[in-house]
Design goal:
The chain is mainly alpha-helical. Helices cover 70% and strands 4% of the residues. The protein has one domain. It is built from eleven helices and two strands. A two-stranded antiparallel sheet has the order 1-2.
């Protein structure tokens, strides 16, 4: 039993670190080189954060209540939309839509035909991971290039910290979602299987990590981005993954469900306060684009020049 717990903990730690750092670094690579089109709808503000929190708070209930076919359709629409917006500046329309169709269609097929063996599960997870990675990178850049600032992300993470612990420890909604999505197509998480063990990190967590990295970099450059990545690795990866060795987060199926943002959210907020005190005012998007932190010519000009 002790060896099983140690292996499961190490496996979860590896999956979370790879997922969190991969999506954060790839999103940063994208931010430095690619500009997304965005309608001129004004500056991102606190009201937008409130709307986003309400949306994310109600979305899990919608997933639980909808029949499986409707949930799959909703997830397919979500991923198709994010991928089409995020990679339109990089690919010709024919290539873009063919790629999206192959990714989504293949995941649906794998979820129905390949889950009888460990290798089949691994192929299913790996293909789904690509979709989730690409989607998280696109959405994070859409928000940040649209004006989201580090202070928005810090408050967002802090609010989600409270939400996460309530709906994991007191209302088992997170546990129900993990069980409901496991083995179904378009699972909104990054994960892998070894033997009988599955380890995963949710799309929402990955999105927070990418947003924290991008807004830190946009606000203050590489010095802040390095701080963000260290905090993500320690309090988004190491601490939550090791927590089950001390605190019992194991449900009836022996799947470990840890409220990740409860650990990361407060630290992200404190990290924001420290960076603001040390580095001063955040740069706007206009100032960021004019800095040396942007690499090469923009692929597509940003339409809203005054966004934050």
């Amino acid at each position: 039993m002790g060896n099983d717990i140690a292996f499961e903990t190490a496996f979860q730690l590896g999956v979370v670190l790879i997922g969190a750092l991969t999506v954060s670094l790839c999103a940063l690579f994208y931010l430095r080189r690619v500009r997304l089109e965005r309608p001129a709808i004004g500056t991102f503000n606190g009201r937008d954060i409130a709307i986003l929190v309400v949306f994310l708070a109600t979305l899990p209930e919608i997933y639980i209540l909808l029949p499986r076919w409707a949930t799959t359709c909703l997830l397919a629409l979500t991923f198709v939309t994010s991928l089409s917006i995020g990679y339109r500046p990089l690919l010709r329309p024919t290539t873009l839509w063919l790629g999206i169709g192959i990714l989504v269609g293949l995941n649906l097929w794998l979820g129905r035909t390949m889950l009888g063996t460990v290798l089949g599960w691994q192929v299913f997870w790996a293909e789904g991971d690509i979709i989730v990675f690409l989607g998280a990178i696109a959405v994070a850049n859409l928000y940040v290039q649209g004006g989201m600032r580090l202070r928005h992300v810090a408050w967002f993470a802090l609010v989600l910290a409270g939400y996460d612990i309530v709906f994991t420890a007191f209302v088992p909604l997170t546990n129900a979602l993990v069980e409901d999505f496991l083995g179904y197509p378009l699972d909104p998480s990054v994960g892998m299987r070894i033997g009988l063990y599955d380890a995963a990190v949710g799309l929402g967590d990955l999105l927070i990590y990418a947003l924290f990295t991008l807004t830190s970099y946009k606000a203050y450059g590489w010095r802040a981005a390095r701080v963000a990545l260290v905090l993500i690795a320690l309090f988004g990866g190491v601490v939550p993954s090791l927590a089950p060795l001390i605190i019992n987060f194991v449900d009836a199926r022996a799947d470990i469900v840890v409220p990740v943002q409860t650990w990361f959210g407060p630290v992200a907020f404190l990290g924001y306060l420290w960076m603001r005190r040390r580095y001063g005012r955040e740069r706007t998007m206009r100032e960021f684009l004019a800095s040396s932190d942007v690499v090469g010519p923009a692929r597509t000009p940003l339409l809203a020049q005054g966004v934050g």
